Amino acid sequence: MNKAVFLDRDGVINEVLSSRVKFVNKPSDLYLLPWVAESIKILNDLNYKVFIITNQGGIGLGYMSDKALIDIHVKLVEQLLEEADAQIDDIAYCPHKPHADCACRKPKPTMILELAQKHNIDLQRSFTVGDRGVDIVAGRLAGTRTILIIEEEEIIPVVDVDNVVYSLKEAVAWIVELSQVPELSLR
């Protein structure tokens, strides 16, 4: 079975609610955060499958179309390849409105579980990285280790999380550290 890292998108991979962009509703709104491409490349080199799991309620609310989201993801994948030869293995998204009673929206673990089944993933050897409590809850419910990315002045929400860091670069450093000690890489 394969090991994987499930990444939230907005706030983990790309800017959101920043001075340059409020929301990513078209490809020109996409700005990668520092060290993201290099961090994903490290995961690729360690033989982790890398997936994006993202709630995209803007589709359900009418702010963007499914095609616009696909165009954003094409640009994201191309930019990662161009910057660091980094690869995303698959992307899952929930297009439903916030508070919709759907089966896929995080904090439900559906996106993680479906990707795990599709790609033969051992969830106990895998990680979920996000910047919100819903990401961590989804990862926890799926059976992965969890890493919460916060801003320096942010208060840590009360969630059961394995590690708290300030960037994807720090999250990947912790994953690398665990992968170098065999008894720590398993639960």
List its salient traits:
Histidinol-phos; hydrolase; single chain; carbohydrate metabolism; alpha/beta; Rossmann fold; 6-stranded parallel β-sheet; 187 residues; globular
Helical segment count: 7
The major β-sheet equals: 6 strands, parallel
Could you say which overall geometry the principal axes of the C-alpha atoms support?
Answer: globular
CATH class: Alpha Beta
How many domains? The number is 1
Low-confidence stretches: none
Distance between the termini: 16 Å
Radius of gyration: 15 Å
Beta-strand share of residues? 15-25%
Layout of secondary structure:
Layout: E1 3-7, H1 36-45, E2 48-55, H2 57-60, H3 66-84, E3 90-94, H4 110-119, E4 127-130, H5 133-142, E5 145-149, E6 163-165, H6 168-179, H7 182-185
Parallel strand pairs: 1-2, 1-4, 2-3, 4-5, 5-6
Question: How would you describe this structure to a colleague?
Answer:
Its cofactor is Zn(2+); Mg(2+). It is found in: Cytoplasm. It is an enzyme of class 3 (hydrolase). Zn(2+) binds at residues 94, 96, 102, 104. It comes from Paenibacillus psychroresistens. The protein is α/β, with parallel strands linked by helices and 187 residues long. The protein has one domain: HAD superfamily/HAD-like (Rossmann fold, 3-Layer(aba) Sandwich). Helix content is 37%, strand content 16%. The chain contains seven helices and six strands; from the N terminus they run βαβααβαβαββαα. It has helices at residues 36-45, 57-60, 66-84, 110-119, 133-142, 168-179, 182-185; strands spanning 3-7, 48-55, 90-94, 127-130, 145-149, 163-165. Strands 3-2-1-4-5-6 form a six-stranded parallel β-sheet, sandwiched between helices. Strand 4 (127-130), helix 5 (133-142) and strand 5 form a beta-alpha-beta unit. Helix 1 packs across helix 3 (66-84). The protein starts with a strand and ends with a helix. The model has no long low-confidence stretch (mean pLDDT 93).
